[in-house]
Amino acid sequence: MDQQPPPYRDYNAGYPQHPPGPPPNQPGYPQVVYAYGPPPQQQLQPIVVTQQNVTVQPTVCMTPVRQKSDYLCCSIFTMLCCFFPLGLVALILSIMTRDANMSGDELRAATWSRAAGILNAIALTIGLIFATGLAITVSLSRY
């Protein structure tokens, strides 16, 4: 069972064969000359420099302002979960801190931020005391 593969077909049959080398010039295109050797010498033209006015603008250095913390998330948490009255006041102070930060008023932002932080700490402490007292009361009432 010694089978031979099928013979190859000549796919170029019927097409004219081109001689090796560069393609012939086509009508309507410029004559192409394939010549090898040193490149043609070019004449260097002198460069004429004319004076131009350049305007330089002054450099402006802006230092970024560090924004004060507004304690907004903490204020919302203490308002909803700990002690509502102090949490509400802390939320209002947090919003005022954010507004002062946006307007660039560092002094007011620092003042409102400090007050919001203190009120959040007090509200959280009251909430923890209330939750602890409630847990003790519930656990003692079961016995």
Summarize the structure.
With 143 residues, this protein is mainly α.
Task: Write up this protein.
With 143 residues, this protein is mostly helical. Helices cover 47% and strands 0% of the residues. The chain is built from 3 helices and no strands. It has helices at 72-82, 84-103, 106-141. Helix 1 packs antiparallel against helix 2 (84-103), helix 1 runs parallel beside helix 3 (106-141) and helix 2 runs antiparallel to helix 3 (106-141). The longest helix is centred in the last third of the chain and has 36 residues, at 106-141. The chain is elongated, with a radius of gyration of 44 Å. The model has no long low-confidence stretch (mean pLDDT 82).
Structure characteristics:
47% helix; CD225/Dispanin_fam; CD225/Dispanin; mainly alpha; 143 residues; single chain; transmembrane; Synapse differentiation-inducing gene protein 1-like; membrane
- Structural class per helix/strand content? mainly alpha
* Helical residues, percent: 40-55%
Mean pLDDT: 82
Shape: elongated
User: How many runs of DSSP E, i.e. beta strands?
Assistant: 0
Low-confidence residue ranges: none
Distance between the termini: 99 Å
Strand-residue proportion: under 5%
Query: Number of helical segments?
Result: 3
Q: What's the order of the H and E elements?
A: HHH
| Sheet having the most strands | none
Rg calc: 44 Å
